[in-house]
Each structure stands twice: as structure tokens, then as C-alpha cells.
Amino acid sequence: MKDQKRVLVIAGPTGVGESTVTKKLIERFPRFSRLVTATTRAPRANEKNSVDYYFFTEAQFQDEIKKGNIIEYQNNRDGVYYGSYKPDLERKLNAGRTIIINPDIVGAKFYKENYNATTIFLLPDSIEHLRERHYTRNPNLDAAELEKRLAYARREIEDESGYYDYRVINMQGKLGETLVEIIDILRKEGYELAD
Fold first, then answer.
1. Model confidence over 23-74: pLDDT tens digits?
2. Lesser CB count within 10 Å: N end or C end of the chain?
């Protein structure tokens, strides 16, 4: 039981589908739960505090770091902080949940080293499909901002994806196949999938 896998990292460039894959795994396996991340960005429409994110001002975020409540974090390219909120993690682990986390490379390394997490990097089947996904999610996205995001995605794929335990291509329109591949990885790695 000591070596039982309880934390899973699913990461990838923005727009690749890590949130959708996470949601589908939680629907399929009720034991799984998503870690709610802390951030300094403002809530978007319909986002709820402690459900979608823990929303903090920058001063509050820094205070939570000092208290030991934010155990790993990153200041992203827009000057916004994102981090793992330890009270949420511990509450869910203590309740017997398996936690899925969607971090960047900093978080992936932290959870691999400190929580024996299996790390999975989702890849798009092409940068063009990633471009389409960005426009589908936000039709008003500025062209310069989109190119910046795609350049960042290319860098993540080239420089960071090799660090992860597994690389899974999330083919456009084939979410079911992606899930089958990930579930096979979870079985191989010893995750408990049934309640």
C-alpha cells in the first residue's frame, strides 16, 4: 500500500486537451479528483473560488507560500502566479482520492520527486490542430497572442516533453483512443481504478 500511486500528472501545451482528459477520467473513475490550483489571475465568467481555482491577490499568494500552503509554483509569461494549494491536496489525499494535476514542468518534476507521480505529456497531432483548438475556445483571440502561444507550445514540446514518463498524442476527434491509452498506462503503473 505504501507504494500505491495516488497522484497523476497530465500536462501539455495550452489547448491540447489536458482539462478534457482529466474531466473524462474523473467521470469514469469516481476515486479520481482534480487538484484545484491557486492563482493570482482574476476569475473568468462563471468561475468559482475553491471549485475552479483558489483565487488570491499577489500579496495573499506570497503569504500562502510563506505559510507553506503553496508547495510549488510558477510565475507564467504573463506575470500571473499558479501553484499547488497544499490544503486542497492533503484534504483529497486524506479522503482516499487519487489526485490528477495539470501542472507545468516545474509542478511535474515536484510531483514526480515528492509524490511518486506518473507523468503524462499530451501532444497535439499537429500544431495546426492546436491552432484550431485555440480559435474554437476563443474566436476573438488576437493573432499575435495566438502565435505567441503556439511558439510557447513548440518550446514545451521540444524542450520539456521528453522529461515525462509517457507522451500521448491526443488526436483531433479521437478522445476515446487517448483515454484508452492513458487508462492502459494507469493499469500498468498500478493505479487503483475502481472504488
1. 999 999 999 999 999 999 999 888 999 999 999 999 999 999 999 999 999 9
2. N
Within 10 Å of residue 57's Cβ, how many Cβ atoms?
9
Residue identified by cell 499575435 is 144
Residue 46 lies in domain: 7-187
pLDDT for 63-104, tens place per residue? 999 999 999 999 876 789 999 999 999 999 999 999 999 998
Sign of the torsion angle spanned by Cα atoms 75, 122, 18, 146? positive
Q: Rounded to an integer, what distance in angstroms lies between the CA atom of residue 25 and that of residue 63?
A: 33
In sequence order, which residues have a C-beta less than 8 Å from that of residue 80 and are 6 or more positions away?
39, 40, 41
176-179 long-range CB contacts below 8 Å, 24 or more apart?
178/17, 178/21, 178/122, 179/21, 179/24, 179/25, 179/28
Using the 8-state DSSP alphabet, how is residue 165 labeled? S
Q: In this structure, what CATH number is given to the domain that contains residue 141?
A: 3.40.50.300
pLDDT at residue 2, as a whole number: 42
C-alpha pair distances (Å), 106 with each of 131, 143, 179, 193: 25, 28, 25, 27
